[in-house]
């Protein structure tokens, strides 16, 4: 690598002549080696309507045979494929994700996941089904009162417009009695399924007990679809049909479909503190994207791998060779991989730390990088302006501290601006969701994923057990 003392504007990370994709040439500055309500979920307020059902099912099926094998394997039958005749009077076991944060008074502090579950539940209610909801909350060790789902009942009832009945268990005679008494269009919420250790162990007998109270199965819990648990995978062995709910289907539509067959140019923005936690995502996206922007604490591992001084910034010493290989892979594939050209550094990790902006090649000893700088924001924005599809996973800095949130805020605002220009913008779970919520632009994004680990695994190209277990969609004749 060229010396870090060289002029930052003269070092070229990638040469546009090596590009193998049909994307427009980016501004030369972006090719420099750095010196270094329901609308919020993309449902547009009409998620329960039949048009969404048809759209999601058809969009997901349309990827069959046109993209990677992973897309084909993820094309699943949707709850929207089930008609009133299929659902009227039927007992439907619905795995939802109601794992919401509660305060000390057991009040919900963020009801996003509750609202996300409503379209599927409403569809089932409207078609005369008897809805049995199953979820976990927290990480209980046995029966733990503070992790009871009881606090969810008032909000669920309010959103659905009917009184939701709550069971004190998720299996057993009392649950069976409540199910037997459930009217068509009624909703029963089972107690926390993780009160039983058999849930996470996916024990067949426990799964059989859960399934015994229902006629068919709907999985709408994307956040737990990457786990082979009794309520996400085990019950499918005893219930047919087993189909995806609207939320799960929509996650697959965007995180599999739109990413595998994107409108180009396709850009990916990956941030976060460590390269190690995003290796799979970066490697997978390098196979698909035209532009890859990196931010967050991971950038310092890339800097050090190229011989730059990083002061006391976070570095994964055992990932230096990996960082080098990822840069080489990007170049070989013609992907424009952009690292920040300047950074905001601090003399300590604290919200009130002294800070200043320096070129990425000039981080002094004893200082640490906590955000990307204004020049980097400008270059990133220029690159993003050329795109038609963008996916974002991970913050650009320590956005919990206002002083080091500018990079993350800028990305959120830019994606909001692009969304209004019909660019597909996908927020891939985790801290990125918190960022767009904090900036107040969540409602304009094309899709905001409700899953953390599930989103990452899907972006890595992994198959999710809770999805694989569902019925395959019937191919649509072309």
TrEMBL record:
Annotated positions binding ATP: 278, 400, 429-432
Transferase as UniProt keyword: yes
Binding locations of substrate: 97-99, 136-139
Gene3D superfamilies: Phosphoglycerate kinase, N-terminal domain
Primary residence: plastid
Binding-site residues for (2R)-3-phosphoglycerate, renumbered to this chain: 113, 194, 227
Subcellular locations according to the entry: Plastid, Chloroplast
Segments for region (Disordered): 1-29
Pfam families given in the database record: PGK
Entry keywords, A to Z: ATP-binding, Calvin cycle, Chloroplast, Kinase, Magnesium, Metal-binding, Nucleotide-binding, Plastid, Transferase, Transit peptide
GO molecular function, one term: protein kinase activity
Gene Ontology terms: biological process: galactolipid biosynthetic process; gluconeogenesis; glycolytic process; reductive pentose-phosphate cycle; thylakoid membrane organization
Catalytic activity: (2R)-3-phosphoglycerate + ATP = (2R)-3-phospho-glyceroyl phosphate + ADP
Protein's pathway: Carbohydrate biosynthesis; Calvin cycle
EC number: 2.7.2.3
GO cellular component: chloroplast; cytosol; membrane
InterPro entries hit by this protein: Phosphoglycerate_kinase, Phosphoglycerate_kinase_CS, Phosphoglycerate_kinase_N, Phosphoglycerate_kinase_sf
Cofactor names: Mg(2+)
Record text on subunit structure and interactions: Monomer.
HAMAP family the record matches: Phosphoglyc_kinase (MF_00145)
Family named by the database record: Belongs to the phosphoglycerate kinase family.
Protein name (database record): Phosphoglycerate kinase
Record lineage: Eukaryota, Viridiplantae, Streptophyta, Embryophyta, Tracheophyta
């Amino acid at each position: 690598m060229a010396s870090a003392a060289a002029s930052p504007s003269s070092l070229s990370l990638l040469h546009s002549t090596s590009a193998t994709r049909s994307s427009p040439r980016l501004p030369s500055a972006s090719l420099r080696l750095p010196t270094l309500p329901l609308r919020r979920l993309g449902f547009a307020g009409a998620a329960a309507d039949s048009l969404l059902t048809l759209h999601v099912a058809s969009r997901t099926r349309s990827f069959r045979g046109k993209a990677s094998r992973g897309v084909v394997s993820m094309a699943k039958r949707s709850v929207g494929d089930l008609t009133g005749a299929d659902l009227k009077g039927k007992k439907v076991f619905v795995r939802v994700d109601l794992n919401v944060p509660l305060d000390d008074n057991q009040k919900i502090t963020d009801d996003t996941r509750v609202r996300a579950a409503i379209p599927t539940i409403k569809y089932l209610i409207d078609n005369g089904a008897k809805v049995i909801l199953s979820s976990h909350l927290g990480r209980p060790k046995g029966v733990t009162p503070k992790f009871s789902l009881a606090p969810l009942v008032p909000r669920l009832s309010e959103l659905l417009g009917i009184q939701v009945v709550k069971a004190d268990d998720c299996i057993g005679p009392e649950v069976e009695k409540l199910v037997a008494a459930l009217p068509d269009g009624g909703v029963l919420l089972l107690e926390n399924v993780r009160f039983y250790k058999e849930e996470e162990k996916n024990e067949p007998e426990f799964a059989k007990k859960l399934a015994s109270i229902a006629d068919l199965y709907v999985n709408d819990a994307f956040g737990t679809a990457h786990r082979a648990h009794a309520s996400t995978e085990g019950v499918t062995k005893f219930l047919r049909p087993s189909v995806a709910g609207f939320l799960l289907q929509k996650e697959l539509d965007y995180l599999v479909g739109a990413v595998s067959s994107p409108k180009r140019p396709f850009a990916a923005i990956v941030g976060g503190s460590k390269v190690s936690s995003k290796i799979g995502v970066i490697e997978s996206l390098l196979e698909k994207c035209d532009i890859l922007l990196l931010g967050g604490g991971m950038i310092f591992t890339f800097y050090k791998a190229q011989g730059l001084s990083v002061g006391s910034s976070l570095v994964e010493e055992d990932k230096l060779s990996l960082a080098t290989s990822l840069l080489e892979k990007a170049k070989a594939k013609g992907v424009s991989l952009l690292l920040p050209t300047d950074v905001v550094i601090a003399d300590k990790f604290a919200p009130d730390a002294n800070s200043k902006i320096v070129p990425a090649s000039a981080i002094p000893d004893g200082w640490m990088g906590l955000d990307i700088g204004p020049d980097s924001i400008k270059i990133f924005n220029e690159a993003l302006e050329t795109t038609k599809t963008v996916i974002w996973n991970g913050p650009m800095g320590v956005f919990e501290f206002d002083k080091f949130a500018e990079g993350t805020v800028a990305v959120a605002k830019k994606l909001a601006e692009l969304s209004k220009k019909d660019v597909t913008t996908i927020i891939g779970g985790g801290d990125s969701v918190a960022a767009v919520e904090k900036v107040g632009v969540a409602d304009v994004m094309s899709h905001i994923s409700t899953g953390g680990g599930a989103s990452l695994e899907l972006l890595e190209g992994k198959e999710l057990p809770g999805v694989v277990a569902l019925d395959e969609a019937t191919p649509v004749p072309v």
